[in-house]
């Protein structure tokens, strides 16, 4: 039987606010346990939540970024359950009236085609703390630094049909939130985590199969692998005449498999109800419009513009718009050198190669966009040759000069275009190479083209690479042919 | 000294008749002498009180006194007080010392008041008799065999007994007004959102409101002026200016339109209480007010709606008492579930457990719409009843409680206890302010007249109550305990 996979994702994005969603405590990662948890985060008796406006703005920006409806009113609800790292015994979330309504995310597949994945809604909520099971001799330690960190949970429709599509969706979300600057998108530190709902059904079937939810997958690669494993498991089960049980599963990257955590029967009744400590969030149109007007250009729009206006290939446009840092770097290089294609070639070629070799992110590039732009400009205006340009790039990379111009100056790489100077060098080379000149003269005219290479090499050597090769070539041909 | 109102004490202190230290020492001695019988305090903070009194005396000497300089009062043990046990009347928090001050505690301290300690209360403010305290029941100063009302029973009894001139209470379904009525003092529940809830341990967040309990409406006005105001730490506190509540106390009442809700004078109301309330209304007529009957047609839904909404919120609010971070923890838990179960089984009393169970049930899948959502709809209807009534009249009047204080142990059945709050509970659901003022006696026990106003009409309520107290002396009556000179 032919099977079709159906996937929906719930992506939790940690918002890059300075303080927590309902308290003034810092959200910085990696502090000593429980040093960034105030009375509110600890759920002490009598404390009350106060909503962080920045978190609201970020959620709305995301909604606008995926062209979602932004409801005028959203409401916080309490999700009640007991867990040691959940200090109040409930998580403040949004169940019935989320801050972001239905929207759409465009994903790009490996063949360059695009697909729209619908977003059901996105809501704000607080993160829980962490339970630490190691180093406590059979006991569990609780670190509440993370408790109260703002999360935006983005819930997709079951629109994805393969692990690759799911990974592409996750990448698209990552790209949008980092473009917006509303999250650092650091998956290793848990800034983006996702729950994956997976089911399979016979191809052609219109109703969904029973789904399993894989909790807390935290990398692009693991999402793909977890889905692949889970799809295979479900198909094997069904083909053997079994049934998929609705349950929560956990992906173990070490064993590369998913394992059952709890079944539907064991599921909590969260007893959601509106949080009486928080007022409904009412967004006036002017506020939403202001955020919309100040939205940066997002990846999909940028990619389209790179193709349509700058004439880049679909591939180049995709690579250069994949992250905000990459796109900003490229656009700066382009602005300085005035040539989109050259800028694209250099950023993806020489620069990306060097970054990859040293494992650096574009933000940490030793060569700034201004420096690279100027370097390209010097090639374009014939100040240096393409070969010299690579030398200049290496020098910039190693910090040997402040700018391309400074390096060209100190290294004497300026291309000689003065005809008189080049002619003098040519005359000298011809005078010093009587044997080669004789060979040239005696050769069949059609073979002379190849033989001119020797003379070009000599002239370039004499000029220490600074002579313009095209010019040298043309002048040499003229002078040698005059001798024949 | 202990027979004076706050207003009189303020005058005596500024006239130098005695110092705040002398006053504080006198009251601490009275607590020492009488509170063994009353049990109105859970914690007496004598040392801190004397230090605060000295500081107030010194500030006065420098001419830097706040609005209520050196005046002693007591705080219901539901308000977090830095460095002082804050138990909420529960074994669960018997070992809990708050690391911060509640918003109102800060305000009272800034105003120069001197806190003598933390008063007894029904556990987590759940009760109408103060018999649900882990620290034992409070006795009514008028009759040690009677309850003081609840849940702010300790505050009411301490004020009535002359242990302290005023106290802070909280009112979720009548917990200021009913004990004020039972103990013959004046108690005001402000409009929801008027006073910050920050640092006030939550019972039912959408209903809880702190307010003053004192010997006169004028005293309540002075206290409310300090307590009221916006607090950025409480999102439900209202950003609205605080008027001078004492400014209009003396405004004449001619032309005042009083409504008597038909539903507040029906079955279950004791004839003695009804008689006292109707006499009080006559006093108002003599002051120039007009009286008419009005209807609050959804009144009989108030108790059922309240006992869905309040326990629902409570079941969630009390989830934090899990033995993990603070408060009671059972001995040697076998595992996490054992820790939760035994901690909560041991730490909470019977009534608290009952309400947690009710609330957990009504919020459960399959019941939420039938209970919680329906109750919220009823709540809106009840609120609308009041708004409609206030289109016709300025204030509503009725009994604060269907009977005077009952005997300790008299109400064994929880539902009969819940029915005690029949005249107070709808006010919290509607969010409007209400005040209870002494209006006579029934079988030797005080009767309270409840006066209700529309949202933020506290100044009007205080004026109406104050005028009654200018025309009558019920509020000046003292139990024998308070008549003693020592």
UniProtKB/TrEMBL annotation, chain A:
Q: Which reaction does it catalyse?
A: L-glutamyl-tRNA(Gln) + L-glutamine + ATP + H2O = L-glutaminyl-tRNA(Gln) + L-glutamate + ADP + phosphate + H(+); L-aspartyl-tRNA(Asn) + L-glutamine + ATP + H2O = L-asparaginyl-tRNA(Asn) + L-glutamate + ADP + phosphate + 2 H(+)
Enzyme class label: ligase
Q: Name one Pfam family in it.
A: GatB_N
Question: GO molecular function, one example?
Answer: glutaminyl-tRNA synthase (glutamine-hydrolyzing) activity
GO BP term, example: translation
| DNA repair is among the record's keywords | no
EC number annotated for this UniProt entry:
6.3.5.-
UniProt key word Nucleotide-binding: yes
Keyword field: ATP-binding, Ligase, Nucleotide-binding, Protein biosynthesis, Transferase
Q: Which residues form the Asn/Gln amidotransferase domain?
A: 328-480
Q: What does this protein do?
A: Allows the formation of correctly charged Asn-tRNA(Asn) or Gln-tRNA(Gln) through the transamidation of misacylated Asp-tRNA(Asn) or Glu-tRNA(Gln) in organisms which lack either or both of asparaginyl-tRNA or glutaminyl-tRNA synthetases. The reaction takes place in the presence of glutamine and ATP through an activated phospho-Asp-tRNA(Asn) or phospho-Glu-tRNA(Gln).
Family to which this protein belongs: Belongs to the GatB/GatE family. GatB subfamily.
Relate the assembly described in the record. Answer: Heterotrimer of A, B and C subunits.
In terms of HAMAP family, this protein maps to: GatB (MF_00121)
In terms of PANTHER family, this protein maps to: GLUTAMYL-TRNA GLN AMIDOTRANSFERASE SUBUNIT B MITOCHONDRIAL AND PROKARYOTIC PET112-RELATED, GLUTAMYL-TRNA(GLN) AMIDOTRANSFERASE SUBUNIT B, MITOCHONDRIAL
The protein, known as: Aspartyl/glutamyl-tRNA(Asn/Gln) amidotransferase subunit B
Please name the source species.
Halomonas beimenensis
From TrEMBL, chain B:
Q: Does the keyword ATP-binding apply?
A: yes
InterPro entries the record matches: Amidase, Amidase_CS, Amidase_dom, AS_sf, GatA
- Gene Ontology molecular function: any one: transferase activity
Its EC number(s): 6.3.5.7
Alphabetized PROSITE patterns for the sequence = AMIDASES (PS00571)
**Catalysed reactions, as listed in the record:** L-glutamyl-tRNA(Gln) + L-glutamine + ATP + H2O = L-glutaminyl-tRNA(Gln) + L-glutamate + ADP + phosphate + H(+)
Q: Which domain of life is it from?
A: Bacteria
User: Which keywords belong to this entry?
Assistant: ATP-binding, Ligase, Nucleotide-binding, Protein biosynthesis, Transferase
Domain Amidase, first and last residues per copy:
22-462
This chain belongs to which protein, by name? Answer: Glutamyl-tRNA(Gln) amidotransferase subunit A
Which classification does the entry list for the species? Bacteria, Pseudomonadati, Pseudomonadota, Gammaproteobacteria, Oceanospirillales
């Amino acid at each position: 039987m032919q099977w079709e996979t159906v996937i929906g994702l719930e992506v939790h994005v940690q918002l890059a606010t300075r303080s927590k969603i309902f308290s003034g405590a810092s959200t910085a990662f990696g502090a000593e346990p429980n040093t960034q948890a105030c009375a509110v985060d600890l759920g002490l008796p009598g404390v009350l939540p106060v909503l962080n406006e920045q978190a609201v703005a970020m959620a709305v920006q995301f909604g606008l970024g995926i062209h979602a409806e932004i409801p005028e009113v959203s409401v916080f609800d309490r999700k009640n359950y007991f867990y040691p790292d959940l200090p109040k015994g409930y998580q403040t979330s949004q169940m019935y009236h989320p801050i972001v309504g239905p929207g759409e995310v465009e994903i790009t597949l490996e063949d360059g085609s695009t697909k729209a994945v619908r977003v059901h809604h996105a809501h704000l909520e607080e993160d829980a703390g962490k339970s630490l099971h190691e180093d406590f001799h059979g006991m569990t330690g609780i670190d509440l630094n993370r408790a109260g960190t703002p999360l935006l949970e983005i819930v997709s429709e079951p629109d994805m049909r393969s692990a690759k599509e799911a990974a592409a969706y996750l990448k698209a979300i990552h790209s949008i939130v980092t473009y917006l600057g509303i999250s650092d998108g650091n998956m290793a530190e848990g800034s983006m985590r996702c729950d994956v709902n997976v089911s399979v059904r016979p191809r052609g079937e219109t109703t969904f199969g029973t789904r399993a939810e894989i909790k807390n997958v935290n990398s692009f690669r693991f999402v793909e692998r977890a889905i692949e494993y889970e799809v295979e498991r479900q198909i094997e089960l069904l083909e053997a005449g079994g049934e998929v049980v609705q349950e929560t599963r956990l992906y173990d990257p070490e064993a590369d498999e998913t394992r059952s955590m709890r079944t539907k029967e064991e599921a909590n009744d969260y007893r959601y109800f509106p949080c009486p400590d928080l007022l409904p969030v009412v967004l006036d149109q002017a506020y939403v419009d202001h955020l919309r007007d100040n939205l940066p250009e997002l990846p999909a729009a940028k990619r389209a513009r790179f193709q349509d206006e700058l004439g880049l290939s679909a591939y180049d446009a995709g690579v250069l718009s994949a992250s905000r840092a990459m796109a900003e770097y490229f656009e700066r290089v382009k602005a300085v050198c005035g040539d989109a294609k050259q800028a694209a070639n250099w950023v993806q070629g020489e620069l990306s190669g060097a970054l990859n070799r040293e494992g650096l992110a574009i933000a940490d590039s030793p060569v700034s966009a201004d420096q690279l732009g100027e370097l390209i400009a010097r090639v374009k205006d014939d100040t240096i040759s393409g070969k010299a340009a690579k030398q200049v790039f290496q020098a910039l990379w190693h910090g040997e000069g402040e700018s391309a111009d400074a390096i060209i100056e100190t290294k004497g790489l300026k291309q000689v275009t003065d005809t008189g100077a080049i002619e003098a060098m040519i005359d000298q080379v011809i005078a010093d190479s009587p044997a080669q000149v004789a060979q040239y003269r005696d050769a069949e005219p059609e073979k002379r083209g190849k033989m001119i290479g020797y003379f070009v090499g000599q002239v370039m050597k004499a000029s220490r690479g600074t002579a313009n090769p095209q010019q040298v070539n043309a002048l040499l041909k003229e002078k040698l042919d005059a001798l024949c | 000294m202990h027979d004076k109102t706050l207003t009189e004490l303020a005058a005596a202190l500024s006239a130098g008749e005695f110092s705040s230290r002398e006053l504080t020492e006198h009251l601490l001695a009275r607590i020492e002498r009488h509170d063994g019988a009353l049990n109105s305090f859970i914690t007496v903070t004598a040392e801190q009180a004397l230090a605060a009194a000295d500081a107030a005396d010194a500030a006065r000497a420098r001419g830097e006194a706040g609005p209520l300089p050196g005046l002693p009062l007591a705080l219901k043990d539901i308000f977090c007080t830095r460095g002082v046990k804050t138990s909420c009347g529960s074994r669960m928090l018997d070992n809990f010392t708050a690391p911060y001050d509640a918003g109102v505690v800060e305000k009272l301290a800034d105003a120069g008041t001197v806190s003598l300690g933390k008063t007894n209360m029904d556990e987590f403010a759940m009760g109408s008799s103060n018999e649900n305290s882990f620290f034992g029941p409070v006795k009514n100063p008028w009759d040690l065999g009677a309850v003081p009302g609840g849940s702010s029973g300790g505050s009411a009894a301490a004020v009535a007994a002359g242990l302290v001139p005023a106290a802070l209470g909280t009112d979720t379904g009548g917990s200021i007004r009913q004990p004020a009525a039972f103990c013959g003092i004046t108690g005001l529940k402000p409009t929801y959102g008027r006073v910050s809830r920050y640092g006030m341990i939550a019972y039912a967040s959408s209903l809880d409101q702190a307010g003053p309990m004192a010997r006169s409406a004028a005293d309540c006005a002075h206290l409310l002026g300090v307590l009221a105001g916006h607090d950025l730490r409480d999102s439900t506190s209202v950003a609205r200016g605080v008027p001078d509540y004492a400014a209009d106390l003396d405004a004449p009442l001619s032309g005042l339109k009083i409504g008597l809700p038909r539903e507040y004078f029906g079955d279950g109301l004791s004839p003695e209480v009804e008689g006292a309330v109707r006499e009080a209304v006559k006093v108002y007529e003599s002051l120039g007010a007009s009286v008419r009957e009005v209807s609050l047609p959804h009144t009989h839904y108030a108790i059922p709606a309240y006992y869905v909404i309040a326990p629902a919120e409570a079941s969630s609010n009390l989830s934090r008492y899990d033995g993990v971070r603070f408060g009671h923890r059972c001995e040697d838990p076998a595992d996490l579930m054992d820790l939760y179960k035994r901690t909560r089984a041991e730490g909470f009393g019977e009534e608290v457990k009952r309400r947690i169970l009710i609330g957990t049930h009504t919020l459960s899948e399959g019941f939420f719409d039938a209970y919680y959502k329906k109750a919220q709809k009823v709540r809106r209807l009840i609120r609308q009843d009041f708004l409609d009534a206030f289109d016709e009249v300025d204030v509503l009047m009725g009994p604060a409680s269907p009977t005077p204080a009952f005997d300790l142990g008299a109400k064994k059945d929880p539902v009969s206890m819940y029915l005690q709050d029949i005249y107070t509970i709808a006010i919290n659901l509607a969010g409007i302010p209400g005040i209870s003022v002494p209006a006579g006696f029934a079988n030797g026990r005080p009767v309270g007249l409840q006066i209700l106003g529309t949202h933020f009409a506290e100044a009007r309520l205080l004026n109406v109550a104050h005028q009654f107290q200018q025309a009558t002396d019920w509020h000046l009556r003292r139990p024998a305990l308070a008549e003693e000179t020592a």
